[in-house]
Amino acid sequence: MLQIYIRSITYREPREVKEFHTGAWMRLEDPTDEELIQASETLGVQIDTLRDALDPYETPRLEVEPEGMYIFIRYPDGDSTLPMLVVIAKNGILTVTKEKNPLIQKFADGKIDMYTTQKARFLLLILSEVNRRFTVALSKIRKEVNRKRVHPDKMSSKDIIDFVSYESTLNDFLDSFIPQQAVLNRILASKSADVREDDHDLIEDLILSTNQLIETSRSAIKTMVNIRSAYTAISTEKLNQVLRWLTALTVIFSIPLGITGFYGMNVLLPGKEYEHAASIIAVCIFAVMVLFFFIFIKKKWL
């Protein structure tokens, strides 16, 4: 889908137009090859680079070419991230995504104040919205982690599986944050982005926000690793305790089995003809069992 919007100081909201004009914003979502060719010819940008934005594994990066600047970023989508390309061309700005992007829709609906003629600021506003959505996603994950880490001894296997899923999501987020931080630093240092002086503060805020997202993600991952380690240690200790308990019971109950089996042999044994032999043997068995029982209690096996 190809749409063209324009908003300048004469328009209060973005207006969708049919023809591209200088200072307009061209929006591509799940584009056909014909739409990619049209965008490439209209803005004078490389079509192969536009196709890269449709690769779900594309990583954030910045490419500066004579015809413009290509900024690849990733934005959160549920438990994963998706790529998006923002192109700052000489005559306008272009966004390319493989899927329908609610983040970009907010700009088209006028919910975020922007001017298509201010290309660099438009890019920075997109990055700000991306960071905001990452912050919301991270907050949800941290809330779940904090809720479950209160009682690690009561965690279930499902909780551990959830932690593995959260950790995978956070690593995916980190794979987006770290290159994005480098992109922001390059934009700040680059003259090709046509960044105005009053936008420098916004870039610095974005760099700070990205740093915080990186630290928050790493902290959450470390917390989950520690919780899983604690869960493993607790589970191992519980297993060892059960094994000690079973071993102790096996030893205790093997005593009567051994003695009765010994006296069950068809041979002459001491005291076999004695009238109270069975009672004496039973008392001896019980005494030995009690002795071993207290020994195991003292060693904390029971």
TrEMBL record:
One GO MF term: metal ion transmembrane transporter activity
Membrane-crossing segments per the record: 245-265, 277-297
Gene3D superfamilies: CorA soluble domain-like (3.30.460.20), Magnesium transport protein CorA, transmembrane region (1.20.58.340)
Keywords: Membrane, Transmembrane, Transmembrane helix
SUPFAM superfamilies assigned: CorA soluble domain-like, Magnesium transport protein CorA, transmembrane region
Main location: membrane
Record-linked InterPro entries: CorA-like, CorA_cytoplasmic_dom, CorA_TM1_TM2, MgTranspt_CorA/ZnTranspt_ZntB
Pfam family, one: CorA
Top-level taxon in the UniProt lineage: Bacteria
Membrane topology of the entry: Multi-pass membrane protein
GO cellular component: membrane
Subcellular location: Membrane
Family: Belongs to the CorA metal ion transporter (MIT) (TC 1.A.35) family.
Protein name: Magnesium transporter CorA family protein
